[in-house]
Each structure stands twice: as structure tokens, then as C-alpha cells.
Amino acid sequence: MTNYKTSILFLSLLFCFQMASAQNISGKIIDSQTAESIPYATIIVNNTENLVSNAEGLFTLSENSSNQNTILTISYLGYANQKLSVGDLIKQQNIIKLQAAIIELQEVNVPNKRLSPNEIMANVKANIKNNYAKNSIPKKDMIFFREITTFKPSILDVAIDKSTGFSKDALKKANTQMNAFTSKLITQPPREYVDILCNNYSYLTTKNDKPYFLSKLEVLKATKLKNENSSTSLDDLQKSATDIILKHLDSTKYYRVKSGLFGSRDTISLRKDFNKKKKTTSNQLTATKDNLSSFLIENNITNSTKFDFIHEPETYNYIFEGATYTNENEFVYVLSFKPKKSRAKYKGKLYISETDFAVIRVDYKLEDGKKVSGVNLKLLLGIKTFENVSNGTVTYKNSHVGNGYYLHYASHESGQYIYVNRPLKFIELTDEDKDVVAFDLKVEGNSIEKKEYLNMNRTETSEATIQKITEDDFNFIKIKSYDPKIWKDYNGIEPLEEMKQFKTD
What's 132's DSSP letter? Predict the structure, then answer.
């Protein structure tokens, strides 16, 4: 009997241990002196996957990576590397303290002649094509991509001021519904979170005797956290308002929308036969590929428009802040920059390899009072908009698949101020007396968009393998609140607290 009880106890303890080891392990990376969080630190898992801590210094490992024997290598420019097991992490109460290792200016002793900041930047510009050139080697990249969109209206007025197509009761009901719609957007600003994990296969080939970059996307998992009744863009907002109007118009008639001086060629109606013909199949995979491709182009360091502090060094002031070493013990210059001429827009910090003058990290943000772009047609068309938020971080890694560097991590936050004050009309398409419904749309607010890209693993593959890949369309898993269990089998970017707390209606 004693042996039986002992066996039961042993099996229970073993089961508990297995359950504990199967849980996802989280950690936080902080400065050992200040205890401040360290964002975007690199976490290499068993020398295979490259993760980053989020803006709060947090990361979470998949169940497969949460074994106590899993080895983590933590690195961050300006700090000493740290290697530990998951078991060690648990003993440290899931906190990793990094020691600062920045080399002060007076301590810098470069073997070659000391270069001035302007000379360093001249070398960066001269070597940029070689350092970031696309190579023809077929490769597979495991990518995690997150997109957060928020619209924060400060003024949102939509009122029907003329109607021949509404009865009095319908007009009153439509305005009541419109007021409820706009009030909710003011008190509960809409937000959308999209997470995508995918494999991106690519190689450089030729087509019609010209270079051709071929890529195929395999989506492993995709989630969308959004209030379905909210609008995160101006187009969505106008569509939602239009849907409310259409509910109270004659469902058998056709209408055209006119805004200000301009008419629309789009015909709208609630007729089932009309909308049945109009329906088209949407391809989510194509939209995702386009979105991912656009992000990579915009955040490629060879983009001369966005990264003008690299391509137009004559418009910026650079200061030599010191130096540090990479996790591969490579010497790195640290330069800060800020605008010198009026057309320069950004301030920030550059980390530049002493070996080949590659920029391996840059942190940037708009200088106070600067704008990226804008349009002011407030008097003529009732529209004013400008991009007044633009900041981010970009990190590059030396590629072991071919030569040069590839994008490891990029985050970019952009924000637009929006003002729209325009009349809209629904005009019935008929040669007889027309139904006309007119309403005023006034919107003022800010739209914020943040995108994050993480290349977790790059491996070499073959053209034949890529040719066999079948691109299949996919659907987002729509969730009403963040659920970490959905991602328990995968590594990625730990969500911020605001995403964890967000819940839909």
C-alpha cells in the first residue's frame, strides 16, 4: 500500500512538473543600475530564433521554447551580453538585468585614424548599396508582423439638414442613430490590432532579361482584435455614416453621392440584386503581401526620402557620443543627429559598424515642430491634414545567408491630424423628381498607426522548394480580447499592456 501511495505521489508530482514546464515563460529586461525597461533588446533562443523585447522590455517564449534547458542569449547595443537558461531566468524571478557597457568618448581608441562624424557619415553613404544589396540566394524568413490602428476624434458632427427622401419620423430616427454613432466614437475611440505570423520565401531571379524579385507568403496564423462597429479610418467612418443614411432611404432606388464640388461615379443602393452583382471576392493574402512589401520598402535604410539623415548628411549636425560593441564583439560608432537645415526633419541616434560603415541600428523621431507632409485645402474643399508623428527604430543583422545585412526588426509609428468639413448629398438617379438627402460631415481628430516587423529566423532554401510553395488565402481569427493561448505554440512580439487590456463590445 505504501508503494502504491508513493507511486501515486510520484506520478502526481511528475504531472505537475509537466504542466508547469508546458506553460509559456515570460521575462523582462531591465537596466541593472536604473531598473528601467530596455525595449527592443535581442533575445536569441537556442541560437535559432531571434526575438525582441517589446517597448515595455517584455518578451514571452512559446511552449516549446519554455523548457528549463532552453538557452537565451540577450544582447543590446551599449550593454554587455548575457547568456542564461530558462531555468536561470525562473530563479531570477523572470528578470534579466543588463550591465551598461558604453564606451565613453575619452576611452575610444580606434586602431585607425580617428574619423570625424562627417567622415563617418560619408563612408556610410558610400557603402550603403553594398551593405544592403539584395542577394540572389533563395531564402526563407519567419516573420511576425503587428499593426495597430487608432482613430481619436475630438470633434465628430454628422447631421442631416435636408431631406426630400425621408419622412419626418425617418429623419428624426436617422439623426438619433447618427448622434449615438458619433457619441460612441468620441467616448470610445476605435482601435484595431492585427497580428500575423508567416513564412516569406524569396529570391532574386530574372524575367524578360531583367532582375525580378520573386516572393511567396505562407501565413501560419493571423488574428484581428477589433470592435466590428467602430471605424479606424476616415473611409470607414464615411462608410458607416452612409450605411445609417441608406437604412432610411428607399431600398428600391439607386443613388449617387456628391461631396462639395465633386460628384461620385459610384452608384449605391440597398437593392439585393444590385449588391449581389457588386460583390467581389477579397483576397486577404494579396492585401497582406502588399502591406508587408510596402512596409519593407518604406523602412529599408536605402530609402532616401525617409532616411534623409543618412542620404543627405549635409543637412544634419552629427555628434560623436562614444562607441560600443555588438554581441559579436564588433566595434560600433555611436552618433547622435539633429537638423542643421530647414528641410531636415528628424533627430535621433545612429549605431555604425567600424568595419564596413553599415548602420546596424537607428532610433529616430520628428524634431519638435516638424511635419512630414501635409495638405491644407480647408477654405477651398474643407480638408486639412498633415503627418505630425513619425518615429521608430530599425535594426539590421549581418546575414549568414549571402553577404551584407538584412532587416531584423523595425517599428514605425505615424500620426495624422485630420480635419474634414464637407457637405454630402445622396441624389436619386432618375429623370423625374429626385430624392435628395443632404448632410454635413465635420471631423477633427488624430489617426495613429504603429507597425512592427520582426524577422525571427532566416534560412537558406532552394528555387525548387519555393516554386513548389502554394500560396493559399486565409482568414483572420477574430478575437474579442487578447488571448495568449492562441499564440502559445509560437514566438513573436509580446503585446503591450494596452493591447492586453483592450476588449471589444
Answer: T
* Single-letter amino acid code for the residue at 337: F
Within 10 A of 272 (CB to CB), how many other CB atoms are there?
A: 9
Distance CA 222, CA 486 (A): 10
What is the edge-to-edge ordering of all strands in the sheet holding 42-45? Answer: 49-52, 42-45, 71-75, 82-85
Look up residue 364 and give its three cell numbers. 529616430
Q: Which residues pair with 442 in a beta bridge?
A: 157, 421
**Beta carbons of 135 and 402 less than 8 angstroms apart:** yes
Phi and psi (nearest 5°) for 21?
-70, -20
Predicted confidence (pLDDT) per residue in 301-313, tens digit: 998 888 999 999 9
HEC secondary structure over 474-505: CCCEEECECCHHHHCCCCCCCCCHHHHHCECC
SS3 sequence, 194-244? Answer: EEEEEEEEEEEEEECCEEEEEEEEEEEEEEEEECCCCCCCHHHHHHHHHHH
List Cα–Cα distances, 11 to 5, 248, 343, in angstroms.
10, 67, 70
pLDDT band with cut points at 50, 70 and 90 for residue 262: low
CA distances (Å), 477 to each of 22, 348, 363, 437, in order? 24, 38, 33, 38
pLDDT, one tens digit per residue, over 3-24 is 555 544 444 444 344 434 457 8
CB atoms closer than 10 angstroms to residue 18: 9
Q: Report residue 142 CA to chain centroid gap.
A: 16
Half-sphere exposure of 464 (CA within 13 A, CB side): 0
Terminal-to-terminal C-alpha distance of the chain: 56
Name the grid cell of 114. Answer: 580617428
CA distance linking residue 386 with residue 375, whole number of Å: 6
Say whether pLDDT at 450 is over 60: yes
Closest CA to 33 of 100, 94, 92, 93: 100
Task: Give the whole-angstrom CA distance, residue 350 versus residue 316.
Answer: 13
Strand order from edge to edge, sheet including 95-98: 58-60, 26-31, 95-98
CA–CA distance, 251 with 234 (Å, rounded to integer): 25
**Which residues pair with residue 453 across a beta bridge?**
145, 410
Which positions ≥6 away from 243 have C-beta within 8 Å?
none
* Amino acid identity at 263: G
* Opening angle at CA 154, ends 148 and 158, nearest 5: 105
pLDDT > 60? residue 201: yes
